[in-house]
Structure to design on (223 residues):
């Protein structure tokens, strides 16, 4: 299985901050890398697909970059509604695998 | 817009069978890959598998053959059956749609399943 490793596991930030989360794959996943936002009691939300494509309806302060084995999710000017847990997921190989998550907290 | 809703019992006894259904509203079940993902308490997300409109399936090998997925196009529903459950199967179960290689774009809110001993 392709192992996905996110860092950091926990990130303390303030409204207005620029934050970055990294995701490393144990082997190349080309650009088949997606990012999700999870909040308790809500349906998970796809933010970024294909490493850098912004999902429809997602604010432009979210951006993704990378290819191969190293990827980054960046949130510019963190908003109160962005405090959540973020997961990367590879869609290159089966089984699909997720990172262990990054909790962004105040 | 397309919405997904999971349904099923919240409590299952150890060694028995877990059965969940996902109802797709606002769109057709055809043309996409329909997946199940779960999240045990305090653990990351785990992909369980998918079923396609043709009935073809792909399951996570970690489940060791305990899982079956099915599709009912007349009801716009797809289902998950997991046999011989144990405490490690206690989790929040999500159904989700996968659009080709572009990720899981629509998710249900999830349903919590607890396996009791």
């Amino acid at each position: 299985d392709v192992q996905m490793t996110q860092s950091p596991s926990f990130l303390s930030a303030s409204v207005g901050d620029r934050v970055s989360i990294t995701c490393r794959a144990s082997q190349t996943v080309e650009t088949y890398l997606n990012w999700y936002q999870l909040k308790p009691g809500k349906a998970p939300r796809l933010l970024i697909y294909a490493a850098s494509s912004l999902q429809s309806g997602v604010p432009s302060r979210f951006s993704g970059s990378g290819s191969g084995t190293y990827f980054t999710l960046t949130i510019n000017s963190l908003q109160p509604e962005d405090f959540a847990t973020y997961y990367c997921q590879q869609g290159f190989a089966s089984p699909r695998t997720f990172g262990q998550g990054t909790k962004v907290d105040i | 817009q397309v919405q997904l809703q999971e349904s099923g019992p919240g409590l299952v006894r150890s060694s028995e069978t877990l059965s969940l259904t996902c109802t797709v509203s606002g769109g057709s079940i055809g043309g996409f890959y329909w997946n199940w993902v779960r999240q045990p308490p305090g653990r990351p997300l785990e992909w369980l598998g998918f079923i396609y409109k043709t009935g073809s399936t792909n399951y996570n090998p970690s489940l060791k053959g305990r899982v079956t997925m099915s599709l009912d196009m007349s009801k716009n529903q797809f289902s998950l059956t997991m046999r011989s459950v144990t405490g490690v199967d206690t989790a929040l179960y999500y159904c989700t749609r996968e659009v080709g290689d572009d990720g899981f774009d629509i998710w249900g809110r999830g349903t919590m399943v607890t396996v009791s001993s």
Remarks:
- DSSP finds no helices and eleven strands in chain A.
